[in-house]
Design brief:
Elements: H1 3-38, H2 42-56, H3 70-86, H4 88-99, H5 105-108, H6 111-143, H7 155-172, H8 175-184, H9 190-195, H10 197-211, H11 216-243, H12 247-250
Helix pairs in contact: 1-3, 1-4, 2-3, 2-6, 3-7, 4-6, 6-7, 8-11, 10-11
Length: about 250
């Protein structure tokens, strides 16, 4: 077998492995979706997600559906989003399992902590957005609404807003994991990251301004945790580096 054909076979085997991991991750999401559709059901899930918006509306107000199939499709989409969040540990495990064969034994010790921390941080970001940010943002916006306007949010617009906000907060809460990976791979040192701290803070506020509504409440609610999580990453990175060092690196 020539070197070229061996390399081609290796590339194909990697593609097959990637396909298998993607299929397994999809199975996990589908299974979680089926369970959520049985209990508590798409309607109850949507009612739960809409609670912060309804709490900010005048008593007795409801959201509206302008599309014919919106009352069916929107709860289904919300259920799929929740299923993805529920299955996230399994999805992250499939990602790390795909990468793991290329790692040394001492590096593989990072897989489980990173899978757990990535899942916990993403879910924490989504929970922070739902329980802390939504209520304050909706009340803040409602206070600026003139009395001559009847606020009746459309469920599809609300879905887009909720999905973008939850994914934004979930992704930005992964900052410590990103810092740890960058430091462990030797792309950047902890000292370098500390030296660019002012730029990281400015960057956090810029990101918050881009991905959140144009109000100070939601922007601060995202920027401040990002700055704190960046500091957490600087604390945890040296610990992970020491734990994952090869035996000869200790010498």
């Amino acid at each position: 077998m020539t070197e070229e054909s061996a390399g081609e076979e290796t590339f194909i085997s990697h593609l097959v492995e990637l396909r298998d991991r993607l299929i397994k991750a999809t199975y996990g999401i589908v299974l979680a979706c089926i369970v959520l559709m049985v209990w508590p059901g798409p309607a109850r899930i949507y009612d739960f997600l809409a609670a912060p918006m309804l709490a900010a509306l005048p008593a007795g107000s409801k959201m509206i559906a302008t599309g014919v199939v919106s009352p069916f499709l929107v709860p289904m989409k919300i259920t799929l989003l929740i299923a993805f969040i529920v299955a996230l540990p399994w999805v992250f495990y499939q990602v790390w399992a795909f990468v793991a064969p290329g790692l040394y034994a001492h590096e593989k010790r990072l897989v489980l902590p990173l899978v757990i921390s990535s899942s916990v941080l993403f879910i924490a970001g989504v929970a922070f957005c739902y329980f802390f940010v939504f209520g304050r943002v909706f009340h803040f916006i409602g206070n600026f609404s003139p009395n001559s306007i009847a606020v009746m949010p459309d469920i599809e617009n609300y879905l887009d807003f909720v999905m973008s906000m939850c994914l934004a907060f979930g992704a930005t809460f992964e900052v410590p994991v990103v810092v740890v990976i960058l430091v462990r791979m030797g792309i950047v040192s902890v000292e370098k990251l500390r030296s660019i701290r002012p730029y990281a803070i400015v960057g956090a506020f810029v990101i918050a301004a881009v991905v959140t509504p144009p109000d100070a409440v939601s922007q601060l609610a995202l920027a401040i945790p990002m700055c704190l999580l960046f500091e957490l990453g600087l604390i945890m990175a040296p610990i992970f580096v020491r734990v994952s060092q090869a035996p000869e690196e200790h010498a």
